[in-house]
Protein: Dithiol-glutaredoxin protein
Amino acid sequence: MCDPRTTAPKGLFRRVVSTVAVGVLALLASMPVIDAFVRPSLITLGKSHITSSPSSSSSTQVGLMNFLNNGKKALVKSLAGEYDATAIQTRINGLIDDNPVLMFSFTTCPFCIKAKQVLDDLEAKYTVIELDTDPDGKSIRAEMADFVGRTSVPAIWIAGQFVGGCNDGPMGGLVKLNDSGKLDGMLREVGAL
Ligand SMILES: *[C@@H]1O[C@H](CO)[C@@H](O)[C@H](O)[C@H]1NC(C)=O
Structure:
């Protein structure tokens, strides 16, 4: 099980807040699709200062991705305005606990549509919270920055475990899990199939 609150990297983004170019970030924040390019693997590499990696990203790329992602998290937080963080965290935890398959999504995001298609093709039962129409959507996205270290959608949990997005994240994302044949078993195990 993953308790995102304990694994979330905190504070790093605060250090770069003052240096971000808000115009660029506003554009990024308004385009959830861009999130797919801010790869968590690069973020991890940046944090642990590992210079060689299988994906052979240069440290400059890592630094830039880190910069953009951290700035983006800060911007998502600021866009959310004032909200009751404890209440939002309680709601997120409740959703993760109560739903064997949970997806935070945007109604129009292509990667979200693709992720839903993977589940629909398997005729899986799943719960979607559309963050662009949910009244708590902005706050949930802001809290996700601390919960899972990213704000991108789709964000998918299976049996309480964060599996990533459509084709990224800690378990490679839904498409990869499906292609490797693992998804079917995972969904059966939680009774979603
Ligand atoms: C899921 O995997 C199956 C089997 O590998 C494949 O036939 C199917 O096209 C995949 N679904 C999607 C939406 O990619």
Notes: The first helix runs from residue 4 to 7. Residues 36 and 168 are 7 Å apart (CA to CA). Confidence is low (pLDDT under 50) at residues 1-14, 16-23, 32-56.
